[in-house]
Amino acid sequence: MSKQVDNIIIDQTFKNIDFQEADLTEKEFDACTFINCSFSKCYFSGANLTDCRFENCDLSLVRFGNTGLREVAFTGCKLTGTDFSGCKSTFLSISFGKCGLDLASFMKMKINKTPFLSCSLREADFTGTDLSGSKFENCDLDRAVFMDSILEKADLKTAINYSIDPERNKIRQAAFSLSGIPGLLYKYNINIS
User: Whole-structure pTM over 0.90, yes or no?
Assistant: First the structure.
């Protein structure tokens, strides 16, 4: 059964709602909060979300096609396989706390200064992504793809399991911990003790 949602929604809180079959194309959400909602496999084509919060929501396999995300915070959300690469670059501002972003795609996005706090980013795709000044605090980056990425001034001091080739990515003034050095030298197949 399809759910009908008004085109412009301002200052609303949605709790425990299943949006899986809702038509969210061309919708405008301003200052809205979503708590324990399911958006799995939704397509936000042409939607705009401004100053919105998602708390403990399931956004697995969501596709953002020409979607505006301005000051949008995701906390405790499941975003497995979510494709953010279709988001509008204008005024794009997102943050993630305690989220599962495994297999998510951020390909060719400009998401500099984005905070990723205590997130799982296993096999996430950051190919061609501008992550300059971003913070990966206590994040698991196992098998995450960094290829032609900009990580200048990014903070990866507490990130784990990353493999970043300094010859294929821009890492000037990025911060790494001493224990993370093997993740920068992995391709040389050397033992570091």
Answer: yes
